[in-house]
Amino acid sequence: MSDGFGPDHLPYGVFSRAGGPRRVGVRLGDGVIDLHAATGRDDFAQPCLNAFLARGPQVWAETRAEVLALAPEAPTVPVADLTLYLPFEVADYVDFYASEHHATTVGRIFRPDAAEPLPLNWRHLPVGYHGRAGTVVVSGTPVVRPCGQRRDPGQDAPTFGPTRRLDLEAELGYVVGVGSRHGSAVPHTALADHVFGVVGLNDWSARDLQAWEYVPLGPFLGKSFATSVSAWVTPLAALDAAWCDLPAQDPEPLAYLGPGLTRGLDIAVEVEVNGTVVSRPPYSSQYWSPAQMLAHLTVNGACLRTGDLFASGTISGPGPEESGSLLELSWGGTRPRPDGRTFLADGDVVTLRYSAPSVTGGRLTLGEVTGRVEPAVC
Ligand code: MN
Questions:
Q1: All domains of the chain, ordered by start, with CATH?
Q2: Cα 53 to ligand 1 centroid, rounded to whole Å
């Protein structure tokens, strides 16, 4: 059985076989259980997970128990024979900036003369921006190098053309199942009432477009061209053994952010470029927890919808080979990696891998996120 996809995991995805309809399935080893065939349920005869996600925590738990019971005998289809799709229809997409090590290093790269690398607000709230839901793609989808305005060093005016600073951002995405009422805030204690599970996520970024456009309203076209997510959604129920205490927060955040309750996930990440591991960011080093990000996202009364996706921001640890972006690994493009490279070249293949402790004492392998860089078309 394929490592990390045992009965302690059971992640959900959407597949088709030989031109057949899309169906919801659960990964078990090297195979996939067709849940519509196995249960007859209509919410599994769907082209996405949303109908199932909307049913809520009780149905998620009952279904997990049912799948676990039928798993030993259930027929599976080899995953190699299937086409996998974006597992859920993305409603709204928000990306945070929750790693202290990432935000600090980026601050030092972009503002080397500043006394404090973090913005004044950073320790008081999880900084984020609204991304583009329609360009979230499933792992394996090629990523075309974007074109746009970028300003060369020392120049006042921009030029137009393909980005010269295409980057990856290794992140974890949270998939919302149950929505909330417009006008009400979701408390920091309610993560499991709304969030179904997690996906691996690569927030592809064009650093030169981003640097020119981001003042004063934040990221826009430098990030909206593509965001890749894994084909498999790992339910929070599979991650019971992965919760850990996050580093202490100072100053204590405001009450709605649940001070003192910073529980995060001990997920190990590997960033691979063209088959070589270039870093190993630890998600356990994040500053802001998923419950705090969810509470902050809704504290103004903004509602959640089924299919909402909110992501951690680039995951970076304290070590030199624990950074989740090439911006950091190359110190703003000034320090080439051992292969002589800084940012991504056409033809490069980026793969993000994730693993987490399992309740059985082993490790779960979360769905990988891979993508190949294609040449620009401008
Ligand atoms: Mn990001």
A1: 12-84 (2.30.30.230), 93-374 (3.90.850.10)
A2: 24
